[in-house]
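User: Hey, quick favor. My workstation is busy. Could you predict this chain's structure for me?
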Amino acid sequence: MTGEELARLVAEDAVTLVDVRSPREFAGEAGYPCDPRQGHIPGAVNVEVSELLDAEPAALPALLAARGADPSRPIVAYCHSGSRSAYAVAALRAAGLDAENYAGSWHEWSRRPAS
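Assistant: No problem, here it is.
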């Protein structure tokens, strides 16, 4: 999925966005100096990748719902560069959820005009 495709889906409110970075990265309190800004994609919920990998697959829909995400919708996971989110997508798919990785992740999105 490209940044443009994700921007369209976000604008249409057509996906559940799951940021699998640490809570500090999500809040913009930590990150990588190669990114022009820190934070998260508007509308995303934060579920650290380790939580997804440590949970039983059957428990993932409830975990997402508890964080304010709708697991019945298509899910797009992202991290900083697409690596952690690739693991997250594998876990989500193992739970039977419709999930896709945004490979450009925050590294790409942080270069878009702030919204």
